[in-house]
Amino acid sequence: MPLTEWDPAYNIGIKEIDEHHQKLVELLNKTYDIILYSTKKRDIEQILKELIDYTNYHFAAEEHVMKENKCSGYRAHVNRHNEFKQQLNALYAGYHSGEAFVSTDVVLFLREWLLNHILKADIKIVSQVLPPHTSISGNSASFSGSGTRSDSP
């Protein structure tokens, strides 16, 4: 059973960003499973690296959408992203060097950060990107402006 089931309530209404968020939840679930069931350091390092790489990719795409649409709060949002990336990188470096242990509690923290960020910070982007009166329930709205990227993994 996954740590977190994707809930349509997590959708912010920007298709590309919603797909990224869904992928991040999948990676957190995979990370949780590997920590629970694998004793191989290499497996844990590999999934942490995958999580870091995709987080960097997602944050860059999200920041691009915000910048292209001149969203207010851009700098503060980027700062939150940078803080989270620093935490992920420190976690990886500590685990890789043997100075830190990665437990399910760490994954629970990452999940809480992500869901809180989606529901409190990312949702604020929508009103600045989508036209007024656009439905954002489920995945019904999509962003197709200059912030759309076609190189998603």
Descriptive overview:
The protein is built from four helices and no strands. It is mainly α. The protein has a single domain, classed as Hemerythrin-like (Four Helix Bundle (Hemerythrin (Met), subunit A), Up-down Bundle), CATH 1.20.120. Helix 2 (41-68) packs antiparallel against helix 3. The longest helix has 28 residues, at 41-68. The radius of gyration is 16 Å and the shape is globular. The two termini are 25 Å apart.
Give the helices and strands, then pairings.
Layout: H1 15-37, H2 41-68, H3 74-97, H4 104-129
Helix pairs in contact: 1-2, 1-4, 2-3
Helicity level, as a percent range? 55-70%
Order of helices and strands: HHHH
CATH topology: Four Helix Bundle (Hemerythrin (Met), subunit A)
User: What is the quaternary state of this protein?
Assistant: single chain
Residues in β-strands, percent: under 5%
**Count of separate DSSP helical elements:** 4
The CATH homologous superfamily corresponds to Hemerythrin-like
Secondary-structure-based class equals: mainly alpha
Rg over CA atoms: 16 Å
CATH class: Mainly Alpha
Shape-level CATH architecture: Up-down Bundle
> Shape, please?
globular
Short note summarizing the structure:
With 153 residues, the protein is mainly alpha-helical.
Keyword list:
Four Helix Bundle (Hemerythrin (Met), subunit A); 153 residues; globular; mainly alpha; 4 helices
